[in-house]
Design a protein that fits this description.
Layout: E1 24-28, H1 31-34, H2 47-52, H3 70-83, E2 88-92, H4 95-98, H5 108-123, E3 127-133, H6 139-143, H7 150-167, E4 173-178, H8 180-189, H9 200-224, E5 229-236, E6 239-241, H10 246-261, H11 264-267, H12 274-279, H13 291-295, E7 301-306, E8 310-312, H14 335-348, E9 354-359, H15 377-395, E10 400-406, E11 425-427, E12 434-436, H16 438-449
The protein binds beta-D-fucopyranose (FCB).
The site of beta-D-fucopyranose has 12 residues, from loops.
Length: 458
């Protein structure tokens, strides 16, 4: 695909102030998407293992049994990060490795894996950024109600405690949850993700229990590792109305409440967006005394995940399309929305620090360089345009400390299986061989210089 220059405009590298020298450059992954080794060393099944067995749930009929086999290749993958010169690695811990049935008996072998990973990272000066929950809930807990149940939040806090007990002396940055919106919405409302349930009210209950789990886990992190930074990772898909009509504008408000304010507002102490909660018929029965204060406990850092924007229409079944360049997911490439989001966060909230915890794109990856590596200029264009917005936000005074490319390597893209490739490193899923794409080499250059070179200029 070709990308229109107008939506990707970036000042030339010479015009730009470089990124601050202490800016952290990293890459991100998550446990279920890369680890494989689904029964190794006592790991229990997660909701994703079960979901993958459902007819039609995963577009290409695949699963996470092997994935990138990172569990057995983590040493090589750390070498890869080091060769790219990255200063940080964001990964997640698989709850079912640590507690195979979610609670009860701890499995120390599961923790050993992350212990080795953290040591390997530190040995090559890469900061470990650990996420405690990136969607792989132990299936046993789902059988008992999953995030619909308050008990899951308590189990999550105990799991967090076990992990931080073991790794808290070396991990300096913790995130409790990755994208609770997607856990609750895709898992319990639309059913496109595990556990595949479809009820708005279950989704709302799940959203509260996820946030409660965040608050409870944060308390444990604070007490065990008081010097570590701790926060949560939220995704934002800014919505704009198709037309100026009253109905489109109102529907856009509803979508922004549900998708973009539902989690950040309670964390910022503002509670759930009231009008939309009422509109959806959620009476907030799950919210008990003290919950909202726990959820609003100060965080040190907010992780921001951004991929795309959405255009919203009030017309039933109408999905407005804009003639904007798209990624291989069909998502609009719209760096302007990223810039606006960062501006809105900076002016609307007062979190002490931000990291861009995920940003990136799936691209078709059809072109090859003469040496055979993937020639993904389109992915470089995407990163470059979005990083320029980060630079603008920093120049405007927003405290953004780090950027994590999604993803270090091609991996299991949830319901899409392995067909959608987000990696800066190519994975051959037959041989499991890794090979940096052109974008990885470009990104290594960015990390080394703090500049955003134009790949077409060289
Ligand atoms: C985010 C997820 C991540 C990956 C990217 C493409 O929503 O956090 O695991 O799937 O999207």
């Amino acid at each position: 695909m070709t990308i229109k220059p107008d939506s990707m405009s970036v000042a030339s590298a010479d015009d730009q102030p470089p990124f601050p020298t202490d800016f952290t450059w990293g890459a991100a992954t998550s446990s279920f998407q890369i680890e494989g080794a689904s029964t190794a060393d006592g790991r229990g099944p997660s909701i994703w293992d079960d979901f993958c067995k459902r007819e039609g749930a995963i577009a290409d009929g695949t699963n996470g049994d092997i994935a990138c086999d990172h569990y057995h290749r983590s040493g090589d993958d750390v070498d890869l990060l080091a060769r790219l010169g990255l200063g940080a690695y964001r990964f997640s811990i698989a709850w079912p490795r640590v507690y195979p049935t979610g609670s009860g008996a701890l499995n120390p072998l599961g923790l050993d894996h992350y212990d080795r990973l953290v040591d390997a990272l530190l040995a090559v000066d890469i900061d470990p950024y650990a996420t405690l929950y990136h969607w792989d809930l132990p299936q046993t807990l789902e059988d008992a109600g999953g995030w619909r149940s308050r008990e899951t939040a308590y189990a999550f806090a105990d799991y967090a405690e076990a992990v931080v007990d073991r790794l808290g002396d070396r991990v300096s940055s913790w995130s409790t949850l990755n994208e609770p919106f997607v856990s609750a919405n895709h898992g319990y409302v639309t059913g496109e993700h595990a556990p595949g349930r479809t009820s708005m009210l279950e989704g709302m209950a799940a959203s509260h229990h996820l946030l409660l789990g965040h608050g409870l886990a944060l308390e444990r992190i604070r007490s065990i590792a008081p010097d570590a930074e701790a926060g949560i990772v939220l995704n934002f898909t800014p919505a704009e109305p198709d037309t100026d009509g009253v109905a489109d504008v109102a529907e856009t408000e509803r979508v922004n409440d549900l998708e973009n304010r539902w989690y950040i507002d309670p964390i910022a102490g503002r509670g759930y967006p009231e009008a939309t909660a009422q509109l959806e018929g959620w009476n907030q029965n799950e919210v008990e005394d003290g919950d909202m204060a726990l959820i609003a406990a100060p965080i040190d850092v907010l992780g921001v995940n951004f991929y795309t924007r959405q255009v919203v229409s009030a017309l039933e079944g109408h999905k407005p399309e804009r003639p904007t360049p798209k990624t291989d997911m069909g998502w609009d490439i719209h760096p302007h929305s990223f810039g606006k989001l960062l501006h809105d966060l900076q002016t609307g909230y007062d979190f002490p620090k931000y990291i861009i915890s995920e940003n990136g794109c799936a691209m078709p990856d059809n072109a090859r360089m003469p040496d055979g590596r993937v020639d993904d200029l389109d992915r470089i264009d995407y990163f470059r345009a979005h990083l320029a917005r980060v630079l603008d936000a920093i120049a405007a005074g927003m405290p953004i400390a780090a950027y994590f490319a999604w993803s270090l390597m091609d991996n299991f893209e949830w319901a899409h299986g392995y067909a959608k490739r987000f990696g800066i490193v190519e994975v051959d899923f037959d041989t499991l061989e890794r090979r940096p794409k052109r974008s990885a080499l470009w990104y290594a250059d960015v990390a080394a210089t703090g500049m955003l070179p134009d790949p077409r200029a060289t």
